Amino acid sequence: MGFAQSTKTSYISHYQCRKCFSFLEIKSMCRLVVLFLVMLPHAAAYDPLDPTGNITIKWDIVSWTADGYVAAVTMNNFQVYRSIRSPGWTLGWQWAKKEVIWSMVGAQTTEQGDCSKFKGNVPHCCKRNPIVVDLLPGVPYNQQFSNCCKGGVLSAWGQDPIGSVSAFQVSVGLAGTSNKTVKLPTNFTLLGPGPGYTCGPAKVVASTVYLTADRRRKTQALMTWNVTCTYSQFLASRNPSCCVSFSSFYNETITPCPTCACGCQNKKNCVMSDSKKAHKGGINTPRKDNAPMLQCTHHMCPIRVHWHVKLNYKDYWRVKIAITNFNYRMNYTQWTLVAQHPSLNAVTQVFSFDYKPLVPYEAINDTGMFYGMKYYNDLLMEAGPQGNVQSEVLLRKNKDTFTFKHGWAFPRKVYFNGDECLLPPPDTYPFLPNSAHVNPITILTMAFSVLLCMLTI
Prior knowledge:
Helix content is 13%, strand content 32%. By secondary structure, it is of the alpha+beta class. It folds into two domains: 55-235, Sandwich (Immunoglobulin-like); 239-435, Immunoglobulin-like (Sandwich). It is elongated. Keywords: Glycoprotein, GPI-anchor, Lipoprotein, Membrane, Signal. It is found in: Cell membrane. One of its GO terms (biological process) is plant-type cell wall cellulose biosynthetic process.
């Protein structure tokens, strides 16, 4: 009995210890989950529809000077559907030593800083943390550089590869005069035009190789470093900047944007569409802080995307897409709209927009980018009668998977200008009439009537 009791006690103690250990394991796992959830907004720069999208800033030292170097700085927007709109990009950094900018071509700093210690030749900028902006179109030729002077506007690479590049030249003094003595700038910042971009440290890479004009000779930069900047919608804004509404031919109900989809902080300063203020002069003048002047709506979003299932043919179905601008102070140039839907792998015709399939993962083709035709509808005007663009899309049916049930006809995700739009809750989508919930009282009534009829025969 003593041995059995001892064994039993040992087994219980082992079980209790194992139970405690399991509890400690679960507690540790919970901590890791909480830590992951806390860190998630900061890791949101990864975009599953554009996994390699970024803005790369490349510095090429092209010549040495008496006290420094001359560098060509190139910004490449490798984001497929996210552009930098007016008033353009703003680039900043911090010098590693006491460098100054003697001159710039194709761009300028916003401040000169204190250059009082220099006699005679005064630098362009003496600040330790200069802020650089692009020049406006139409500047004199002697101030221009290749791919400069667009007012800071950078097109999305997937929409306009040529317009997705911006560049300027900078002459740096009081710096190193060799690869070993040059110190790389630090703390790069990029506004495009507002917050949202996070830049990594500068990294020395293989020197850029150039081809001469006759393409018969190659030259090489003396030194090259890259800075990579990625975008996070969480850093750009606490609230979404667009919303989506749905409707269909098989249901009279229109599913609107969710209430306060983009936050209602502008509710007190909005403008009614039928008020005199909406037609007052100067209301469309943009402000330096890009503060919006929104039309009063229940969703309070600058942009609404409406997806309407219009027609159902034997082998095709037709969708109408309408984009409406509710911001009186903003014209959207070179806008982009991205939608994720299973039927986008069978697009037959897009009538009034340009279209490009996006295939970030080769096995999945369910995402596409819509954008305006150049000189036709690539400009989305401010709020008002002209503040909308629309098109229709013809999609081929897949007879094995095609259905209108359970919200299948509506997109899974929608992005406008690279920002994800807020969709309505799935249970509010327009449903098919024959999929409506059947009233049990009606069934009982019909059964009772049939029984009564049988008994009276």
